[in-house]
User: Fold this.
Amino acid sequence: MTKKIDVDVSVLLDKLVTDLTPLLAINPVIIGIHTGGSWLAEILHQRLAINEPCGSLDISFYRDDFSRIGLNPEVKASDIPQDISDRHILLIDDVLQTGRTIRAAMNEIFDYGRPASIHLCVLVERNGHELPIQADYCGMTLDLRPDQQIKLTGPEKLSLMVGDLAAGDNQS
Amino acid sequence: MRQHLQYTDNGKLRHFLSIEGLKKETLQQILSTADKFTQFGQRDIKKLPLLRGHTVVNLFFENSSRTRTTFEIAAKRLSADVINLNPGTSSTSKGETLLDTVNILEAMHTDLFVIRHAKSGVAELIARHVPDHVHIINAGDGQHAHPTQAMLDMFTIRQYKSTFNELRVAIVGDILHSRVARSQIHALNTLGVHEIRVVAPNSLLPSQIERLGVHAYNDLQQGLEGVDVVMMLRLQKERMQNAYIPSEQEYFNLYGLTTESLAAAAEDAIIMHPGPINRGLEISSVVADGPRSVILPQVTNGIAVRMAVMAMVLGGEGNG
Assistant:
């Protein structure tokens, strides 16, 4: 069973825009993680009025469970249009849970160059961390049962859905 | 039978032995995965961690430079450890059988064998012999198949042409001895091209070639009429003990691809060749180096396509 939870995503985005505004001083490069993170990155990129294009990452080739689950047939191309060496990165994802996606994303970012810093911004930070990775900016925190999954749906209208974990893998 | 050998019970690609028996979706997944791999050549670090900790053995019983090199680069770009072996005939002369050689290497924890052999069916024989966790990619077996070459050709066609189902393709030259041609024909049929023609003298056409779903032509001009893709084959002189052609000059006059003979093809037709090229025998230098030739892009594409096939056979089979 999947159901929409009673949270207005636009309110969370308002909070993030306020929290992120001071970061504009260091001229960050915005990079979203495919797919939910890329939707959010586009919106924040526009709301923060950043001129440089924003990048997107598909971390499929960097996942730590390739030997177990194989290649995602739907893998999208990563695209980071600018040189990120010595730049400050604002990395954006929809949900932070285990931290494995963020680890994979950081590995991929370093294959593009050596950034000056990486800041992590997520819409929802939930319980279930498996790595020492925390968000620097988050819209909300949430405690869920281990068998529950939270997912951002969109992109036309962004909503947060909570459901029982489907059989298979979860690597948020 | 062959289909089961190439797939696991869950339908994941396990070995890559021949295009024959592979589903259209598998070929499409190879092309789309290769597409993602082409961009990594432009990054600071041209490596992906997918096959870290895996060992790939290039086992080439028959000589090859570009196929072995591109397999090696592909495996290294995916962070695998790569060992190149060219046993030639020496190990068999020492009394070691083919399967002995494989057993020895397997005992060193090899995950993937890339195999080329002058005899048809060797890759399949080894695939039947190895345990579940070992994978086989056929890099050319006798006159049977060369499936990664066919896939890099398909990838190159897709780069330059819009959809497969409207294309007319001519394969020209030594069809009889060519494992490349057989794999190309299966791939083109599986991907649903409009028409496949083979063009060669009767002495270089296998009997009943039409059964593979192609139209056979003896005349080059007629065979090239209106085609969108011209796939040249190398004249395999080393495999010709008998007089398949009267003379090299006469072969070039009748079947060599020149600016004049190419005039029959569509104006935007692309020219392909799996290499190595016999200049002045099956193709003139002017055409091989000309603006419509995509021979060098074929070589570049070989890396991404071989990365895709390796990643697909070595990946796990959960539902991701």
Remarks:
- The mean pLDDT of chain A is 92.
